[in-house]
C-alpha cells in the first residue's frame, strides 16, 4: 500500500510541475518540490495519527517527522523523472 501511495505522490508532483514552471531537467527545483510534498504528507499523516514511527526512526526535532521519507523522495523522484525524460528523448 505504501508503494501505491508513493506513486500517487509522484503523480501529484508530475501534475504540479507546470504550475511551478519546473522542467524535468531542473533537478534542484524538482527535489525541492519532492521534499515539500513528502514533508506535507508526513506532517499530515502524523498529526492525524494515520501512522506512527518506531523508536529507531530519526526524527526532525522541531516537527517530529522521520527524515527517511524526505530522503526517499529526494532520491527517487529526480531519478524517476530523469529516467522518464531519457526514455522519451531516446524514442
Strand and helix map with partners:
Layout: H1 2-16, H2 27-47, E1 59-60, E2 65-66, H3 67-90
Antiparallel strand pairs: 1-2
Describe this structure as you would to a colleague.
The protein has 91 residues and is mainly alpha-helical. The protein has one domain (2-90). 66% of the residues lie in helices and 4% in strands. The chain has helices spanning 2-16, 27-47, 67-90, and strands at 59-60, 65-66. β1 (59-60) and β2 form a beta hairpin. α2 (27-47) crosses α3. The longest helix is centred in the C-terminal third of the chain and has 24 residues, at 67-90.
- Rg computed from alpha carbons, rounded to a whole number of angstroms: 14 Å
* Order of H and E elements: HHEEH
What summary fits the major beta sheet?
2 strands, antiparallel
Number of strands: 2
Instruction: Give the spatial strand order of the biggest sheet.
Output: 1-2
Report how far apart the termini are: 32 Å
Number of helices in the DSSP assignment:
3
Shape: elongated
Strand content: under 5%
Structural class: mainly alpha
Helix content: 55-70%
Average pLDDT: 81
Return the domain count: 1
Low-confidence stretches: none
Amino acid at each position: 500500500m505504501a508503494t501505491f501511495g508513493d506513486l500517487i505522490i509522484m503523480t501529484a508532483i508530475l501534475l504540479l510541475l507546470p504550475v511551478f514552471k519546473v522542467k524535468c531537467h531542473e533537478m534542484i527545483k524538482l527535489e525541492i518540490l519532492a521534499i515539500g510534498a513528502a514533508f506535507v504528507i508526513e506532517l499530515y499523516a502524523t498529526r492525524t495519527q494515520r501512522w506512527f514511527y518506531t523508536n529507531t526512526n530519526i526524527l526532525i526535532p522541531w516537527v517530529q517527522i522521520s527524515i527517511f521519507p524526505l530522503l526517499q523522495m529526494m532520491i527517487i523522484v529526480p531519478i524517476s523523472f530523469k529516467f522518464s525524460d531519457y526514455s522519451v528523448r531516446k524514442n
